[in-house]
Structures are given as structure tokens and as C-alpha cells.
Amino acid sequence: MLTSELRDRVDRSITAFLWRQWVQLGLSGEVTQPDRWAIDPEALLAITLRMGGRDPRLFDEVLDWLCLNGRSMSVQRLKNLTRQDEISRVLAEAVLAWVGAHNPALHGWYDRRRVQPPAHPISPGSVRVRVPDPILAEFGVLWPEVAPSGNSSSPETMDPAAFAFRLRAFFGVGTRAEIVRCLLTGGGETAQRIADVTAYAKRNVHETLTALAEAGPLLVERRGYEFVYTLHPAGWGEVLDISYDDPSIVLPEFLDWTALTRLLVPLLLWLDGSVVLSPYLAASGARELVERIKSDLILVGVSIPNGRRAMGEAYWPVFVATVDRLLARLGD
Q: Does the pLDDT at position 122 exceed 80?
């Protein structure tokens, strides 16, 4: 498969993946086969802000969704998830300001004192900009003027995909809801692992874990030099309105969205630049990329083909197989 063909395929698949996730959270559209995992709203937003501009309608509709559902989102988590990438950080600040300017209940998100435009304007996609949106432009983001469409709805909290919002209805928007989501869907974890998954500081996570342990529902077990924290699903069914006798209402599956956030952007950006490379350089660059995102691929649940003996251009099919497994994991 040519590099351009692989790039186009990944671009289509990831765009379809993003649409499917957002529709399950209330964006206007239809999903024929719902996912069984719990969606991480801030991680999904971080990915969409960075890559969603490839589909202008998706970018615009996500802004509309945020105007309606912004009070159920964590600004701090979004900032934590985007702070390592300057473009993502700027886009997040710009979008938060845009939503705050269009929703009086979130007016605190629009603070001109936060405006620190980048040295060069940022364009989320290749869309032609005749009249730039004035709020986004304050942050150096070039995008056509956009207004809330009113097409979005609130998440159906009983759906597995919207499990995060069901927990936030119980525990509020903060560390407690994210920790419970992590432990109920993913099983026992260490404090460091929970901090990685929830995108909160380990100190804050540890304080919340201590409070949960003191309250009773959290099991703490020492394993070597670390403590492992576990929430047993039994007992949570009645609280969360989950019937274990009804197979259609069960706990959702776990997907490490923070790892997905870290690997998707480098993959898509590398593919954008790979089309100008020779087959040898493309294969060499692909090997380096896989080494860089290997740990996150594993965390997402993607097994990596053994390419140790594939030298030079022979590594390219190994890379294509790795990408195919990632796309299959995401429901392609």
C-alpha cells in the first residue's frame, strides 16, 4: 500500500471514528452499531480539536455540542490533556473562549486576559476562510465565522458510551467521577496508573483515593512497593441503575483514551508528511514512529507485529499491519 493510500484510509477511518463517538454523546446523526466502551469526553475533544478540522462540519457541530453540554465538561482535564502540544493548547483555549462567548452560563470561559495568540496563525483544517470567526481569531485560530447550530442534544446517560456523564451526575465533574469510571471499567490499578488514565495530578488522585477508601467502597491491596485500588462492581448496580440480569444494561468496556490521545495525533501528522518520502525513508520513519508510540498502542489494546527482521523497505508492510490493527481496535 502506498503512503498516500494509507494516509487517506487512516484519515477517513479516524474521521468516521470521531463522528461515531460524538453522535453517541448527542451530536446530530445516527450510529448503526454503538460502541461498548465508555467515552472520555475531554480526550475525545482534545483529539477532535487537533484533527477534526479535516471535516469542517464536525468541527462546527462539536462547538454547538459544547455550548449545550459544556457544564458537564472538565476544563482542567482538557487543559491537562492538551498542555504538551502547543497547537492543541491554543485550540483548546480558543474553543473554550468561543463557547463562553456564546453561552451566558459559561461566560467565565471567555477571558480576554488569557489571550496569548501564537506567533503564526493556526488553521485547524484546509477550509477556506473568507470571514474569520472573531472570537477564535483573537487566539490566532483561523476558522470561518460560526454560530451554534442548535442541532445537538445532551448525552443519554444510560448508554454505555455516555457512562462518564452518568458518573458526573452522581459525583460531579472532578477526580472522583473519573477515578470511579477508571476502576469500574478497567479493574484494579495503582495510583500512578489511575493518574495517567484520568489526566489528573497524582497528588489529587491520591487524596481522592484516600477519601474513597475511608468511605468504604474502595479495596486497597499492597503489592510489592505499590498499592492497588479496586472497586468491585457488585453493589454499584443499584446505585448506577445497572441490572446484571439484563444483558443490554451492563458496565461499559474500558478504553485508555489518554493513550489514544497521545498516539493518534503523531500518527496522523506523520502520515501527512510521509507522502513526500521515498519508500526507504518512509519505512525508516515508520519504524521510529512505532517505537515512539509503542507503549500507547499497547495500552489501547493493539498488539504490534514483530518487525525485528524486516530491514529497510521490508518494514513498511509491518507498519501497515500495525495501523490496520489500530483501526480494527477503533471499530473500522
A: yes
